[in-house]
Specification:
The complex is a heterodimer of chains A (271) and B (452). Chain A has helices at residues 2-25, 31-57, 65-87, 93-109, 124-159, 164-168, 172-205, 213-235, 239-263. With 271 residues, chain A is mostly helical. In chain A, helix 2 runs antiparallel to helix 3, helix 3 (65-87) packs across helix 5 (124-159) and helix 5 crosses helix 9 (239-263). Chain A is flat, with a radius of gyration of 19 Å. Chain B has helices spanning 15-21, 28-36, 62-76, 82-85, 94-105, 117-131, 137-156, 166-178, 193-204, 217-227, 237-243, 260-269, 301-368, 373-401, 407-417, 429-438, and strands at residues 2-9, 41-48, 52-59, 90-93, 185-189, 209-213, 230-231, 246-249, 275-279, 296-300. Chain B is elongated, with a radius of gyration of 33 Å. Classes of the chains: A mainly alpha (271), B alpha/beta (452).
């Protein structure tokens, strides 16, 4: 039942992706309405998927990579829908939807069997740690996308080659603002994620910090975003530079979040 | 009955022709009365702007209507004889006429697609026709609908959104960079006409703080008073640049007065907050290399013109969507127009039957002599029900067919079969021939052909 809902979600997100991508090229103005509708339907099914899985597993479904990525793209779509409601930047969907879809496809490829919970994982710290970290990554993903859009609009305004994107993209100021907000929200989430992770590590292994590779990279990411925020407030790392930094930062996040899990086998591999 | 439009516009007539046919505002009333005095013209309205003259009318017969309006136009400007005028005119009837009216009101037929003035002019034309009582049920409905359609087009498409003048293009770019312009600071360096215009548009869009600097400080003070801004001494303006988000430069200086290094320093002091520089001066006053600095956007007069060109293209793209809205509305309106025609026919048919019944009844009653009240009533009911039963089927199919493609044929047939149009010569073949030739796309103009 759960995998049926998952597959329906996948189909809706595929539809949303295609609709939003054709919006980039199309001349029709009412396309985003359908795209948003399809995305909204996908989100509803996604929510049902998560809830039914929770019911089947008997614990919050955040204990393997499949579940973590699924939750991540769910939160990404949630934030996207909230932003659409507030700002109506349809073009955001042309970038968020493919991102969410790709993540969900990779979740589909990963083993999705519900396993009985390892006793060392049974702690509320685990859930708090995972949820905070994943929400932090969602915020950084938003910073990445808005930064990317900023660079596109900046290029258009500089080169003076006005195409459809110019009309569809919002102002530089709004993109820069969203970029800053995303990082300002993502950073405390990451900070709390790392702290709760330390608490959980203490609970599970008896030590707060053991310098395992994932912890190291999380710490580096944290330092990076700290520098970005600090630079913005003091020496004016805003606008174009902030956009580049948000993109670089997110690459680091993806590296820590995904790649590390496949390269290094340690106690952290499940998430 | 049919709706027609006869007119000419910037697309069909050069200004030499248009200027001779223009109706001055104070003489529209006179023209409307004059037009109404032509036979066969039931309702009329005149729209006259510098780009177009449109005569909208409801006429008894399309072909004759076209001819009368043509005569009316020539009578206004006899120097333009038939051959000088007709090639510039367009003639629309039925659906095409409705579509044309909707397109004009929605600014799809305008020189600059999406320009907003036409709707105001359209409303004025409608109003003056109403004041002079030359519109009736049909034109009132259609012109009101046209205003509604124009508003719908404006809210549902982006046809009027992008700027199509250089000075508005500056405002639009400022919005693309800064978003909301409230609280932004602009600085005028030198003040040409265009710079002032751009500044005015920016102030209209929310900018409150204006700095003005000119070589002649008194002039700056003067302008500052006008814009409620601050005058800045010319040798001090580089300091002001740090504060200013938007700088409009238009001095008569023959060289670059704002150089790349100056701006680099300014942007550093601004901690990378973007600057939008507009160089309206020719020769240019801002070094072009300035545009290579991050977070600095330099636009000269040609660049602004490029924005305008892109916007015009964008508007034309949006026009496609507007055409869809219009097609939709044309459908509903022409359906309404058709249904309108069936109602008088049904009423006429019922009246005629009732008339016959009454006169026949009276004759018979007088012959029968004394009758009881019941007998009398029975005869009354008998006659009524015969008539009602007989008319039931034709009335139902008339109502039903009215909105079909052959609606007008049915109505025409009913009118002829029951001879509803009295006092009208029945077999005027010459007229038939003419109408066949003038028949519009809809082919529905013949139905009232015999009434004239």
């Amino acid at each position: 039942m759960n995998s049926l809902f998952f597959n329906i979600t996948l189909l809706f997100y595929l539809g949303g992706t295609l609709l939003f991508l054709s919006y980039l090229a199309s001349k029709k103005g009412n396309l985003p309405r359908y795209s948003l509708w399809v995305t909204g339907m996908g989100f509803i099914f996604h929510s049902i998927t998560l809830v039914t899985r929770w019911g089947e597993a008997g614990h919050i479904p955040l204990t393997n990579m499949h579940e973590a990525i699924s939750f991540f793209s769910w939160a990404l779509i949630l934030v996207f829908l909230l932003l659409e409601y507030r700002y109506r930047i349809f073009i955001l969907g042309s970038f968020i939807l493919p991102l969410a879809f790709i993540f969900l496809v990779s979740a589909a490829i990963l083993p999705n069997n519900i396993k009985s919970l390892d006793p060392i994982l049974q702690s509320k710290w685990l859930y708090i740690h995972t949820i905070l970290s994943l929400l932090g990554i969602v915020a950084f993903a938003m910073a990445f996308v808005t930064g990317f859009l900023y660079l596109i609009q900046e290029r258009i305004l500089k080169s003076k080659k006005f195409n459809t994107l110019y009309f569809r993209l919002p102002s530089l100021d709004l993109l820069d603002d969203l970029n800053q907000k995303s990082i300002s929200i993502g950073f405390p989430l990451l900070t709390l994620g790392i702290i709760t992770g330390a608490f959980w590590a203490e609970y599970a292994w008896g030590s707060y910090w053991s310098w395992d590779p994932k912890q190291v990279f999380s710490f580096i990411t944290w330092l990076f975003y700290l520098t970005v925020l600090h630079g913005r407030l003091t020496v004016g790392w805003r606008a174009k530079r902030a956009a580049y930094l948000a993109i670089i930062g997110f690459m680091g996040v993806i590296f820590t979040f995904v790649v590390m899990n496949f390269i290094i086998k340690g106690p952290h591999t499940f998430v | 009955m049919n709706i027609v439009v006869v007119g000419l516009s910037h697309k069909t007539a050069p200004v030499e022709v248009r200027e001779r046919l223009t109706f001055p505002t104070d003489r529209i009333g006179e023209a409307l009365y004059n037009l109404k005095s032509y036979p066969g013209i039931d309702e009329s309205a005149i729209l006259s702007t510098c780009n177009r003259v449109e005569i909208c009318a409801v006429v008894k017969n399309t072909g004759d209507g076209f001819k009368r309006i043509n005569e009316f136009l020539i009578s206004r400007e006899p120097s333009l004889d038939h051959s000088g005028l007709v090639p510039h005119l367009y003639f629309y009837n039925s659906k095409d006429a409705i579509r044309h009216i909707f397109r004009v009101a929605s600014s799809l037929d305008s020189l600059v697609v999406g320009e907003p003035q036409i709707l105001g002019q359209f409303k004025d034309a409608f109003e003056s026709a109403q004041i002079h009582k030359t519109t009736g049920i049909v034109l009132n409905k259609i012109l009101k609908k046209a205003i509604f359609v124009a508003k719908r087009v404006r809210t549902e498409t982006r046809i009027s959104e992008s700027a199509v003048s250089v000075s508005f293009a500056a405002v639009e770019l400022a919005r693309k960079i800064f978003g909301n312009l409230d609280g932004k600071v602009i600085m005028l360096v030198g003040a040409g006409e265009m710079a002032e215009l751009a500044a005015r548009h920016l102030i209209g869009s929310g900018v409150k703080d204006v700095m003005i600097t000119t070589r002649n400080f008194e002039r700056a003070v003067e302008l500052a008073a006008e814009f409620k801004g601050r005058p800045v001494r010319f040798d001090e303006y580089p300091k002001g640049m740090v504060e200013a988000d938007i700088i409009i430069c238009s001095t008569g200086a023959p060289t670059y007065i704002i150089k790349s290094d100056d701006v680099r320093e300014v942007i550093h002091k601004r901690k990378n907050r973007p600057i939008f520089l507009i160089d309206i001066s020719v020769p240019r006053n801002i070094e072009p290399k300035v545009n290579d600095i991050d977070n600095v956007y330099l636009y000269n007069i040609d660049d602004l013109q490029m924005v305008v060109n892109a916007n015009i293209k964008e508007r034309e793209r949006e026009a496609g969507q507007a055409e869809e809205i219009i097609s939709e509305e044309v459908e509903t309106t022409s359906r309404w127009l058709k249904s309108l025609e069936v109602v008088p026919t049904i009423v006429a048919l019922k009246n005629k039957a009732e008339e016959i019944r009454r006169s026949e009844l009276e004759k018979s009653l007088s012959r029968l002599g004394r009758l009881t009240e019941t007998e009398r009533q029975t005869i009354e009911i008998l006659t009524s029900s015969i008539i009602n039963k007989l008319l039931h089927a034709p009335l139902v199919s008339l109502k039903h067919e009215a909105s079909s493609e052959n609606g007008s044929t049915y109505i025409e047939a009913a009118r002829r079969l029951f001879n509803l149009d009295k006092d009208i010569p029945r077999h005027n073949h010459k007229k038939w021939g003419e109408e066949e030739m003038l028949k519009g796309d809809e082919g529905q103009i013949i139905k009232d052909g015999e009434k004239v």
